[in-house]
Amino acid sequence: MAVSRVCLHRFSLSISSIPPYISHLRPRIRHFAAVSASSHSTPNSTSTDITTTPPPSPRPRWKPMCLYFTQSLCTKMDDLAHLNAFSHTFSEELNINAAADMKHVRPQQFDHFLVLDLEGKVEILEFPVLMIDAKTLAVVDFFHRFVRPSEMGEQRINQYIEGKYGKIGVQSVWHDTAIPFTEVIKQFEDWMAKHQLWAREYGGHLNKAAFITCGNWDIKTKIPEQCKVSRMKTPSYFMEWINLKDIYLNFYKRRASGMMTMMRELHMPLVGSHHLGIDDTKNITRVLRRLINDGAVLQITAQRNSTGSVEFLFENRIR
Ligand SMILES: [Zn+2]
Questions:
Q1: Ligand 1 mean position, distance from CA 4 (Å)
Q2: How far is the CA of 231 from the centre of ligand 1 (A)?
Q3: Phi, psi at residue 13, to the nearest 5°?
Q4: I need a labelling partner for 128 at 20 to 30 A (CA). Which of 91, 165, 219, 304 fits?
Q5: Each residue of 102-116: pLDDT tens digit?
Q6: Does the domain at residues 102-152+178-312 carry the CATH identifier 3.30.420.10?
Q7: Contact 143/191 with Cβ under 8 angstroms?
Q8: Are 318 and 246 in contact (CB under 8 A)?
Q9: Is 183 one of the catalytic residues?
Q10: Compositionally biased, Low complexity: which spans (predicted)?
Q11: Ligand 1 centroid to 30 CA: how many Å?
């Protein structure tokens, strides 16, 4: 989680919310409704026309991400109204001007960065990763899954999801798509193998790549905790990572408690919803990109040894 003590600011959207009765409509509409709901801050607001295309605006309108698309599950790629309402690419937000100002850029030790931002305090609920080319800073690919807790009853899951995702309206898509953590890890390893980032048969660290997180919590604490709950060994590629807050501290000589503080100090507006993991990975990527463009060299900041204890490699770090 990209934790911050700063109030969150949301972009206002020009499409209206889906009323509660939509869940009784036929599956095709439900798909749309759930994705629509994923973008709205006021789930209880009324009136909508899901077939109407919004009037043209003078500049490109920000669109919420289709959260079925991010999980390779969108079945509406030929539906114009759906495509008009929801983004089905990362390039609009992240690849424009990726390499706009690279005169201070220094060579990196890695070919790729994997920006990871887990959500879920009790058990992991969301596992989003953006794969960034370390030279061009473009988004190469992404992996995103909602995760179903393994040790909770249905009623508790429903309360947990309502509390976590209800206010940003993504509970329907979560219920439609969430799968167990063990299955997420299996699919994630297949995805990494496809990109030659890691291979099951060799094990060990990532291949010329490093995880980027905002804080140590994600990989130091939550991954081993979830692995224990899911009765699996902590995978070998989760043994080292880069905490962007420590890079930020050592490069700019300023302490930032979280993603929102870094973004505020760098005069970057928030994209999407804070604490929707896939949106947080985009915002962390924008901070990462700025650091690299300003001349930072990304180095591993923490390592876990075979006994499970973690060593921090930077003297100056956020505690
Ligand atoms: Zn879609």
A1: 30
A2: 34
A3: -110, 150
A4: 304
A5: 889 999 999 999 999
A6: yes
A7: yes
A8: yes
A9: no
A10: 37-52
A11: 12
What is the distance in angstroms between the CA of the first residue and the CA of the last residue of the chain?
Answer: 16
Over residues 26-84, the pLDDT tens digits come to: 333 334 333 433 433 333 333 333 344 555 545 667 888 999 999 999 999 999 999 99
Which one of 31, 93, 112, 119 is the catalytic residue? 119
Stretch (H or E) spanning 174: helix 171-177
- Per-domain boundaries in the chain: 102-152+178-312
- Residues across the chain: 319
Output the pTM of the full model: 0.82
Residue 248 — φ and ψ, nearest 5°? -60, -50
- Name the active-site residue from 40, 112, 274, 275: 275
The residue assigned the tokens 């939550």 is 222
- Ligand 1: centre distance to CA 69 (Å): 5
Burial of 233 (0-12, 13-18, 19+ CB in 10 A): exposed
3-class SS string, 196-258: CCCCCCCCCCCCCEEEEECCCHHHHHHHHHHHHHCCCCCCHHHHEEEEHHHHHHHHHCCCCCC
Tokens of 170: 């993504």
